[in-house]
Amino acid sequence: MRIVIAEDDPLLREGLALLLRAESLDVVATAGTPDELLSAVDAHDPDVAIVDVRMPPTHTDEGITAAVEARRRRPGLAVLVLSAYVEQAFATELLAGGGARLGYLLKERVGRVEEFLTALDRVVGGGTAIDPEVVAQLLVRTRPDTRLDRLSPREQEVLALMAEGLGNTAIAERLVVTEGAVHKHIRSIFAKLDLAPTDGTDRRVTAVLRYLDDARRRR
């Protein structure tokens, strides 16, 4: 796994690099600015970029903008975005182009090394990893008359865990139910969100994107 790290805080940047190298992962470059990130992606063709949301010069959304551009240049690039705060709009902006090989974690998650590495593996493997705290904050917002209101409380729980990037086995373990029950709930979610198997899309990704986009528009 070839990794580029883009983080303007030198201590966190080097700490991440040391952590990943200690796990025998190949950190091919580090960057402190969006331009340095894009140059590193062009030069090293990494498998994944770990990117801070807020970077110079304005420390607003430069990291997200650079991540989107990096994926435009390298369509197969996995991106794991790190943020100090829950910023739902940035999460949905990044995911809007397609949910595969994308992750959005709070920086505090890095300290939970096993969780962080699991999320990194999931993203590089083609999945999605959304921080549970982001999902939790999306869940508390409500708006009448949406398709998501059709879901039962259990189906909403299942969709929230899908948004974190969990597969059926992990969801079953988290909810202490059978995989068959999870599969049944997911089929019901697809039906209630009008996602037909003949749509020609990844229904799981589409359901998660609708979930995140709906939450963004409620703000």
TrEMBL record:
Residues in domain Response regulatory?
A: 2-121
Q: Which residues form the HTH luxR-type domain?
A: 144-215
- The reply to whether Transit peptide figures as a keyword in the UniProt entry is no
Return the Pfam families for the record.
GerE, Response_reg
- 4-aspartylphosphate: residues bearing it: D52
Keywords associated with the record: DNA-binding, Phosphoprotein, Transcription, Transcription regulation
Q: Which SMART domains match?
A: HTH_LUXR (SM00421), REC (SM00448)
Which PROSITE patterns does the record match to this protein?
Answer: HTH_LUXR_2, RESPONSE_REGULATORY
**Does the record carry DNA-binding as a key word?**
yes
Quote the protein name from its UniProt record. Answer: Response regulator transcription factor
What organism does the UniProt record list as the source? Answer: Dactylosporangium roseum
Instruction: List the top taxonomic levels of the source.
Output: Bacteria, Bacillati, Actinomycetota, Actinomycetes, Micromonosporales
